[in-house]
Amino acid sequence: MEIDKLKVTTSLDKWIKLNVGGNLFMTSRETLLKDPNSMLARLISDSDLISDKDENGAYLIDRDGKYFSPVLNYLRHGKLILDNGLSAEGVLEEAEFYNITHLIALVKEHIQKRDLQTSVVDNK
Amino acid sequence: MEIDKLKVTTSLDKWIKLNVGGNLFMTSRETLLKDPNSMLARLISDSDLISDKDENGAYLIDRDGKYFSPVLNYLRHGKLILDNGLSAEGVLEEAEFYNITHLIALVKEHIQKRDLQTSVVDNK
Amino acid sequence: MEIDKLKVTTSLDKWIKLNVGGNLFMTSRETLLKDPNSMLARLISDSDLISDKDENGAYLIDRDGKYFSPVLNYLRHGKLILDNGLSAEGVLEEAEFYNITHLIALVKEHIQKRDLQTSVVDNK
Amino acid sequence: MEIDKLKVTTSLDKWIKLNVGGNLFMTSRETLLKDPNSMLARLISDSDLISDKDENGAYLIDRDGKYFSPVLNYLRHGKLILDNGLSAEGVLEEAEFYNITHLIALVKEHIQKRDLQTSVVDNK
Amino acid sequence: MEIDKLKVTTSLDKWIKLNVGGNLFMTSRETLLKDPNSMLARLISDSDLISDKDENGAYLIDRDGKYFSPVLNYLRHGKLILDNGLSAEGVLEEAEFYNITHLIALVKEHIQKRDLQTSVVDNK
């Protein structure tokens, strides 16, 4: 019985709820710790940052959830995936806010390529 | 014990819920006070504007939440980020409604650039 | 005490919940009464139309909420704002259903301009 | 009193909740019965099809809610309305699944026109 | 009475809730078992994979729900349906994560065709 209780606690501990500007995200502790220098790793480590939680126990982050999706996905699988229509500048802003060095580089590279393509089309 | 209770109150006080036309947003008091002349700063200061709240304690605003996102993001980080497809005129309408002077200027500038580009393409 | 109670009732009376095909909208009674001949004004006046409500007290409307957004926004600020990608024909259908004469004219005008532009591009 | 109770039951009976792959839709019984041969009419008639419901009393359908919207709208007003970006093939798949003969024809016609236009542009 | 209870249990057993990064999906056990080698079939078989559930009994998956939609739809009807704007690379990433061999092939084929078309346009 003691062991079962422990198992449940451990299992729930693995999962983290985030309330990003009113949108709920659910992810694993492991994912958020991927980049130890990021603000997200610091948020859940609770040592040097006082973290607020909402009434459902989700960590509160005062940012837009829409641009947070590609940031979280990057931490999940290491790639930058951007849907058409989503502003890359919006994602860059978040990558910088969350301080994820490699993602910042990836988004900047993406913006450079995009602008190069556009200017080629314009000069035809 | 008294101190703990105070801490919880202070922490919850930092966070504000907004119900914009039925969409929930969560942000910090600090963000909403960024532009002291805006309707949002007045809304939460409670002195000269009688504010209604819904059953979850969120301030009620009779506007569309979709166009509110870029407005709130501007208050968060000071930049205008517009996804493709979202009507800039829709955001201008909200910037004027919320009375955020610098954002109004940013959106107008964005619209001018966009219309210039379109007319260049049309005249080729 | 009586006065306080009255104030709360009045304040809640100002706000109306709509359940449009499963999507929740929140707006003011004032907004819905903007066009007195519209089906929305009749819906909340309760005299000549028997209105159903869901379990949260929201008026039930058997239509798509996505195309309802521009209709409600028109009542809020008097302008037609359409995002890229959203079907103008879908909004026209709703403007006619809700019987908002001026909005019907605005959407038809928008469609005519759009079709004119497209045919110019096709004939180049 | 008996009459009032009856009225409430009748009113609630008019409205049907659907849980399409996790998305909630609310519509009238009348709308779902528009095409008597459709799977939706059979779903709520309860005679030849055993229907599952979720914990809120919504009929469970194991399909994607995004492509269900134009199907339900068709039953509401008899027209095919497709937003830009939404896959027409995705809607055709659902029209066939729900077995709505006239809608299947409308979507196929839409796809033919679209493909014709594209090939004209390609051959210029 | 015993039989009725059994029926309810069996009916609820047929339906599975998934919490994919905070988004709720509802589908049938049958759909998730379509590809027996997929991670989804293993998730609900509970034998070789320890599965976490959220407080509503939904299986927790640490991925983005937006790219999960076409994956689930593929299991429902066997076709690849992609909306405009949705990143095919994002869906490929998920098809590989969930280990659905035939879907991986379908998405790769789609990407090849798309890139071929783009390069033809560029070289005109």
Strand order of the largest sheet of chain A: 2-1-3
**What is the 3D shape of chain A?**
elongated
Helix content of chain A: 55-70%
Strand proportion of chain A: 5-15%
Rounded mean pLDDT of chain A is: 85
If interface size is counted as residues with C-beta under 8 Å from the partner's C-beta, which chains form the largest one?
Answer: B-C, 20 and 23 residues
What's the gyration radius of chain A in Å? Answer: 18 Å
Distance linking N and C termini of chain A: 73 Å
Low-confidence stretches of chain A: 1-9
Give an overview of the whole structure.
The structure is a homopentamer of 124-residue chains. Chain A has helices at residues 2-13, 29-32, 39-45, 65-77, 88-97, 101-123, and strands at 15-20, 23-28, 59-61. With 124 residues, chain A is α+β, with helices and mostly antiparallel strands. Chain A has a 3-stranded mixed β-sheet with strand order 2-1-3. In chain A, a hairpin with a 2-residue loop joins β1 and β2 (23-28). The longest helix of chain A has 23 residues, at 101-123. The termini of chain A are far apart. Mean pLDDT of chain A is 85; it is low at 1-9. Chains in contact: A-B, A-E, B-C, C-D, D-E. The interface between B and C is medium-sized, with 20 and 23 residues.
